[in-house]
Amino acid sequence: MGTFLTKLECTYCGEERDPREANRTCPVCGKVLFARYDLEGAARAFGKADLAGRVASMWRYREVMPVADPANVVTLGEGFTPMLRAQRLGERIGLPGLLVKDEGLNPTGTFKARGLSAAVSKAKELGLGRLTMPSAGNAAGALAAYCAAGGLEAHVFMPRDAPEANRVECAAYGASLTLVDGVITDAGRLSAQAASERGLFDVSTLREPYRVEGKKTMGYEIAEQLSWSLPDAIVYPTGGGTGIVGMWKAFGEMEAMGWVGGRRPRMVCVQAEGCAPLVRAFEEGSEFAAPAREPRTVAAGLRVPAAIGDYLVLRAVRESGGTALTVTDGEMVEAVGEMARLAGVFPAPEGAATLAAARKLVEAGWLGRDERVLLLNTGSGLKYLDVIGAAPVPRASASES
Q: Is 395 exposed, middle or buried (0-12, 13-18, 19+ CB in 10 A)?
């Protein structure tokens, strides 16, 4: 069975576009386009029971993925990452039912593999063979890997101070790598310029419709791995915000197909204290987020001063009854070691930020001891050895042994 994709729809003004054509953002208002599916038809064609025996990757949900011809799917086995019960870690912070979903076990070591598998696959189907994007680091490595696997050309623009692992992997996969003085928005300007001058197709975060389709599969997996129930809260590290946006989209699709009920998790947006435009907008009650000035954080994936999908992240957080908060770089680095020692997961600083945030929310009484809370570790700490190694990680205390 193929995809039930029917159209692209603007998430802000409702403009519709043909998914058989190459599209980026809405031509009317410039906002984010979403892939929309015939969910009634999809629900008639397959159900939860049909997933048994399917490939253990994100493409097990192929009917609600955007690629029509399976021959165009470029996959390295991304998705269906483990859902771990972190009892020792949970007891330490007052959440004995704590869960961790470890996206660091994806190809290229981060959740970015999901979005780029979907985007590269759809680009291949549309005949777009030369792709470009800006990246704080991990997305660049994923684009390079999937273009290498699919026979497409990859051009990546990355801040010069991105983690070394990201620079090395881009070169290893054969991508054209340009290092940029500045942050990801500076890299974005150069990527857009290259797209215009050289005829490249720009697959920047939420500036094309399909990376979010890969990210949404985290939501499908969370439900399936929890026997089609959902956690009380999901704590998520937020840079560009595609993860929160994608999971919220997935929950809506599953509800429409009758796979889950109407109760959804409270979505928690976590940002670095040195770069927190979404947290500031949430606290101010704004629909959009003003760009962060002089963004600083050791977590490259959280150093995103402006996000085109800001209104979608804020909408998901507010509709879910969730919240947004910051953590410091020091809290992140300390949480890297704590998650590793007490849960056996070596997280990226971004993933560790969720632990630091969860602790704060427990202490504030926002999260309760009896709640089932899920932390999303978005990447492996192995991608950040130069960053983590530069800061001392506290040794285990007697209470942890």
A: exposed
What is the pTM (predicted TM-score) of this model? 0.94
User: Quick count: other Cβ atoms within 10 Å of Cβ 2?
Assistant: 12
Phi and psi based region of residue 287 (left: phi greater than 0; alpha: psi -120 to 50; beta: remaining): alpha
The CATH number of the structural domain formed by 83-108+213-400 is: 3.40.50.1100
Token readout for 286 is 């704004």
3-state secondary structure of 363: helix
DSSP string computed for 126-170: TT--EEEEE-SSHHHHHHHHHHHHHT-EEEEEEETTS-HHHHHHH
- Sequence-distant (≥ 6) Cβ neighbours of residue 305 within 8 angstroms: 183, 184, 185, 275, 277, 291, 292, 293, 295
Q: pLDDT tens for residues 233-287? A: 999 999 999 999 999 999 999 999 999 999 999 999 999 999 999 999 999 999 9
- How far is residue 200's CA from residue 344's CA, in Å, rounded to a whole number? 42
User: Tell me, what's the pLDDT at 386?
Assistant: 81
Rounded CA separation 123/214 (Å): 13
